[in-house]
Every structure is written in structure tokens, then in C-alpha cells.
Amino acid sequence: MTLTIIAILVVAIIALIFGALLGYASIRFKVESDPLVEQIDSILPQTQCGQCGYPGCRPYAEAIANGDEINKCPPGGEATIKDLSELMGVEAKPLDAAHGVEDIKKVAFIREDECIGCTKCIQACPVDAILGAAKQMHTVIIDECTGCDLCVDPCPVDCIDMIPLHDTSAQWQWDFKQVSVGEIPVKQLSS
Amino acid sequence: MTEIFLLLLGTVLVNNFVLVQFLGLCPFMGVSGKLETAMGMSMATTFVLTIASMSSYLVETYVLLPLGIEYLRTLSFILVIAVVVQFTEMVVRKTSPSLYRLLGIFLPLITTNCAVLGVALLNTTKQHNFLESIIYGFGAAVGFSFVLILFSAMRERLTAADVPAPFKGASIAMITAGLMSLAFMGFTGLIK
Question: Which of B75, B86, B87 is closest, CB to CB, to A11?
């Protein structure tokens, strides 16, 4: 019994000493990071997929701050490139195909006859796009679904499919942010 | 002196951690894609392995053994390694940003490198003293770096080589690693 207590105490003390050491070190060796890197990092999607050729989003953010291209992030796609180009003050350019293509938009679809009504996917959905109650079948509101995949894993009976969504005339939305409307190109002539 | 040299040579070549003892295979396959990253990983590992080997020896001899709780070895060593890695990362980040840029991202990865824990545990089974522990850790790291850099150089060439379609990518890398391991078996008997 005493042996057990000694063992627990010793490990706890070692852990405490190490924790104190690390806590002290984190204050003593604090580094102010580049605010630009923080901003870029907050724009990147944080998927840490490494498709840009860097081992994560933060290293890529640092690379951009040091002058790397901004079009290497497939998960972020056009939207991220646009935000980055605004932040960095450079021209937006199409996604570099060498790093992969942007996924086509998908929505979740619940095969309703297989659904057991467990509500697990409802809890997982970050945008409340799944409708249903306990022991009632659930369904996805297509217009709300962002295609994030988060509901697929929790489903115990695997009845959720991710279906690619093609643009139709019914849900096509004119994106005024991408296509400038009403802007008349003005050419300045030197007199 | 001779003994120390033999221990070093033995750890680097004869009992190579990766190719003979099969420890640390994850970074061996994982970061060997580019020569540059392999070098960064090698340097970071060398640094951490040597220090982790030393500090786990200290914990073993001055804390665990006197109190008779050697059975908590694995747990305390993991704790020691994690702290050493974290602490190193902080210090390097503060003192040398250029070194941090080179090693920074690899440092956290090393925490889970089984070669690090392997060295610490083997030090106790082989009953090394303080100096031997340091040499053993350093030798293991040099062997790891040596093999990792050789392998990544080979993989860089393999990407350009005309490999038959079914063997492309990971499979040819595995075969290469196997052949390298076979070649390193040739060092057996170099040191009795």
C-alpha cells in the first residue's frame, strides 16, 4: 500500500516539476510571432492536409508571409485565394492544379428507410441542417447543408451518403463577389 | 576509449536502429520524400535523442531506482521525452529562429518516434552508465540520420526513375527499404 502511494507521489511530483519547468519556459522563452502570419493562418481552412506541400496550415501561412504563392490550397478553394489576395495585396489567381483540385460541392443524403432515428447526426451537424427527432427518421435540408462530412462518421448504421451536387438552374446563384457587375472599365489616357 | 568508439560504431552501423532493430520506421517512411526535410528531421532527432537518452538515464538512476519503482519506467520516460521535446522547441524558437525554421515542425513529431523511447529503454536493459547512455543515444541518432538521408536521396531518384506501374510510390519505397535493411545486415560481424 505504501509502495503504491510512493509510486503515485513520485510520478505526480515528477510531473509537477516538469509542468512547472515548461510553464516557466513558456513565459521565459515567449516569442512574439508575426501578426501577418496569424492573419494568414486564420484565413486558411485549418484542414492540415498538406496538399500545399507544407506540413500544415501554419507553415504554409509562414511561407505566404515570406512571399510564396497564395494559390496552393485546394480545400480553401477560390474563396480562400480571394481573401488572401485581399490581405496580401496581390492579384488573385486560379488554384494551382499541381496541388489538387477543389472538391465539387457535396451534400449529405440520409437513406431514410435505413435511419434508426438516433439523432447522432443532428448533434454532429454544425449548421443545423438535419431535421428529425428521436426514433423518427431524419432528413437533410439540402439548402442548409455545407457538405462538411461531419455527420457521416457518427452514423451508427452508415445510412448517410455524400452526394455531389451539380449546379442546376434552380439553385444557381449569381455571385456578385466573383463577377463584378456594374464596373465600367476605365482606361486612363496620358494626355 | 576504444570501447566508446566501438559502441558508437556498433550503434550506427551494426545495430542500426532503423534497418536492423526496426525502430523509428514511421519518420523513416514518412519524411524521406525530400532530402531537405530528411536533413531537418535528422538534425532534430539527433538533438532530441541524445538529450532524451541522457535525461532518462538520470531519471532512472536518481529517481526510479532509489525508490524501487522501476516498473514505472515506460511512463516516466515518455514524460521525460515529451518534456525534453517541448522544452527544446521553446528554447530553439527563442534563441535561433533560423534553426527553428529548419527543425521546428519536426520537433513535435519526434515525441512519438519510438526510437527515442527505444533508446531510453535499451539503455536500462543494457545497463549503460552515464557516458555510455549519451554515446548510445547519439550513435542511434547518427545511424537514424545516416539511413534516413541515404533513403531520401534514393527516393528522390526513384521519383524520376521508370518504375513499373504496380510498384510506383509507396511499394517501391518499401522494397528499397527492405533491400537497404538487407545490405545493412552485411555489417553484422564487423564488431563482435
Answer: B75
Reported as a single tens digit per residue, the pLDDT across B19-70 is 888 888 888 888 888 888 788 888 888 888 899 999 999 999 998 888 888 8
At residue A172, φ and ψ (nearest 5 deg) are -65, 130
DSSP H/E element including A162 = strand A160-164
Residues of A in Cβ contact (< 8 Å) with B94: 29-31
ipTM of this model? Answer: 0.71
SS3 state at A131: strand
Interface test with B, best of A18, A32, A68 (most B CBs within 10 A): A18
Q: Which residues of B104-117 are buried (b: 16+ CB within 10 A; e: fewer)?
A: bbbbebbbebebbb
* CA distances to A46, A147, B57, B60, B64 from B69, in Å: 43, 52, 14, 9, 5
Half-sphere exposure of B182 (CA within 13 A, CB side): 6
Residue A179 has pLDDT above 60, yes or no: no
Q: How far apart are alpha carbons B111 and B26 in whole angstroms?
A: 12
Direct distance between the N- and C-terminal alpha carbons of chain A, in angstroms, rounded to an integer = 96
Rounded Cα–Cα distance for residues B18 and B26 (Å): 10
pLDDT at B148: 92
Q: Which of A79, A63, A140 is nearest to B105 (CA)?
A: A63
Most A CBs within 10 Å, among B69, B72, B111, to test the A interface = B69
More confident residue, A151 or A51: A151
Q: Determine the Cα–Cα distance for residues B74 and B120; give it in Å rounded to an integer.
A: 9
pTM of the entire structure? 0.59
Q: Are residues B83 and A56, on separate chains, in Cβ contact within 8 Å? A: no
> Which residue in B69, B86, B87 is closest to A10 by CB distance?
B69
Cβ contacts below 8 Å, chain A against chain B, sum to: 46
Q: Which of B77, B40, B45 is nearest to B60 (CA)?
A: B77
Mean pLDDT (whole number) for B147-154:
92
